[in-house]
Each structure stands twice: as C-alpha cells, then as structure tokens.
Description:
The protein is an alpha/beta fold. The chain has 10 helices and 10 strands. The protein has 2 domains: 1-80 and 171-259, P-loop containing nucleotide triphosphate hydrolases (Rossmann fold), CATH 3.40.50.300; 89-169, no CATH class. The protein has helices spanning 43-50, 73-79, 96-103, 112-117, 120-139, 155-168, 185-200, 212-218, 236-240, 243-249; strands at residues 3-14, 17-28, 32-36, 58-63, 66-67, 81-84, 173-177, 204-208, 221-226, 229-234. α3 (96-103) packs across α5 (120-139) and α3 (96-103) packs parallel to α6 (155-168). The mean pLDDT is 88. It binds adenosine-5'-triphosphate. The site of adenosine-5'-triphosphate (ATP) has 11 residues, from β2 and α1.
Amino acid sequence: MGQILEVRGLTKRFGGLTAVNDVSFAVNEKEILSVIGPNGAGKSTLFKLISSFLKPTTGEVTFRGERISNQAPHIAARKGVVRTFQETTIFRNMSVRDNVIVAHQLRARASLLGFFMGSAEARRDEARFAESADEILAFLGLDGIGNELARNLPHGHLRALGIAIGLATNPTVLLLDEPFAGMNHDETMKAVAMVRKLRERGLTVLLVEHDMPAVMKISDRIVVLNFGEKIAEGTPSEIQNNQRVIEAYLGVEDEAIGL
Ligand SMILES: Nc1ncnc2c1ncn2[C@@H]1O[C@H](COP(=O)(O)OP(=O)(O)OP(=O)(O)O)[C@@H](O)[C@H]1O
C-alpha cells in the first residue's frame, strides 16, 4: 500500500493562537485513519487544511505527490479529496435520492443552469446521475428510503445521506467530520460497518471523531493531537497504551480513551 496523502510541517495560526503546530503524517492508500484529541486540540482546523478550506500558515498537503494546499477547495475536491461536513448541505425539501442526484453536479459536464433548464446534455447527465445515485444508495443500504424527504429523516440516516452526497463526487480520499456524533449504539455500529464498506470500495478514509470505542474499532492507525501538536501516531492498541496520550486525556471524563 503506497502513500496517497502527505501532511508536511503543517502550521495554522489565528492571530496569536497556533491551532495546528508543525504537524506531519502520511496516509496510506485504502487506510482508515482517525485524528483524535481533546476539545480544541486542532482537529477541525487540520481537516480544513487538508481539504483546502483553510490555507496553512506554513507547511503543505500533497495528494499523490501533488500539492493541494494553498489552492481553492474545489481543486482538492476535483482531485478526489472530499470532506463531508457535520452540516453538509442537504436540501431538506427534496427526497434522499434527488439530493444524491444533485450532488453529482460537482462533476457534471453540463452547467447547473442546463440541469434545471433541461438541455440535452443535462438530460444525459441526469440519467447517468440517477443511475449512480441508485447504486450509491444501494451500496450504503439506503435504497429503502430513496423517496423519503430529507427533512423527515432521523439523525442516523441524515448522517448516512451526508456520506452518500460525499460519494456522489467520486472521491478517492473521504474526510469524515465526526461521523458518529449524536448516534446511539445501534446507529454507530451501522455507521462503522458503512465506513468499512467505503474502504472495500477502494476509498481512503480520514475521520475526526470523539467516540473512542468506535475509533478503536474502526481505525488502522490513529493520529493524536494535543494543543495543536501531534503527540502520537500508531495502531489503536499502541495509542491506548501511549503514556503521552493517556496524560492528555486524564481528567477529561467524557472523552475517556477506553482503557
Ligand atoms: N477561525 C478561527 N479563528 C480563530 N481561532 C480559531 C478558528 N478556528 C479555530 N480556532 C481555534 O483553534 C483552536 C483549535 O480549534 P479546532 O476547532 O481545530 O479544535 P478541535 O480539536 O476540532 O476541537 P473540538 O473537538 O472541540 O471540535 C481552538 O483554540 C479554536 O478556538
């Protein structure tokens, strides 16, 4: 398994505050890598840097050896590095299926205007997109709810729809921002299985997550941030036994590392 993504000496300052401080690590192809750390450790900022939603103060991110940092976010997305947001844009009055069809527009040849005006090319695109949307929904086990309005979905299904929308852009690396947040045990187990399937589909998955049992279950490797710095990197069992990690989490009861 070769390296697909590399984070090199990444630093982000907001005025006097250093949110991410000289962080480096590599992600291997088809790996599931989690970024963890106490509140305010810099995880979201790191994700925004990797997906180019923020420009680094110093350092760089490369995808297959090409720099994707310091460029517009759609450049990273077009290359295949796609972040699903906690608050991914979901059209609440549209069906699940239509949401996934519209999400394909990011890689559409016809313009969005053409899509709504019904140009010939847009109609061809629409047929392809509908087919792809159905495939994605079936893959994620969501085909039974394709016709539901997004606004009627329970929390777990809304999250899953966020992942379906991410898949519609045909990513190579998918960044999931707290995919298990607010889920009960059953929903989390379903979502864990879903993330594993993403890897079987050939994707590389990076996730930021607070749910430690889920992180330990799902990750090939874990990167730990504390006060913006990388304090550890390793397999789940290495991380659970790492003294610096244990100390960083001491006294943070609701984020217990699960020892
Ligand atoms: N746009 C910004 N402007 C100023 N400070 C910011 C900005 N974004 C983040 N920060 C600060 O950077 C630090 C890291 O924040 P970040 O959100 O990356 O941490 P986090 O690990 O994701 O936290 P949480 O687990 O609570 O979501 C925090 O001190 C935060 O207040």
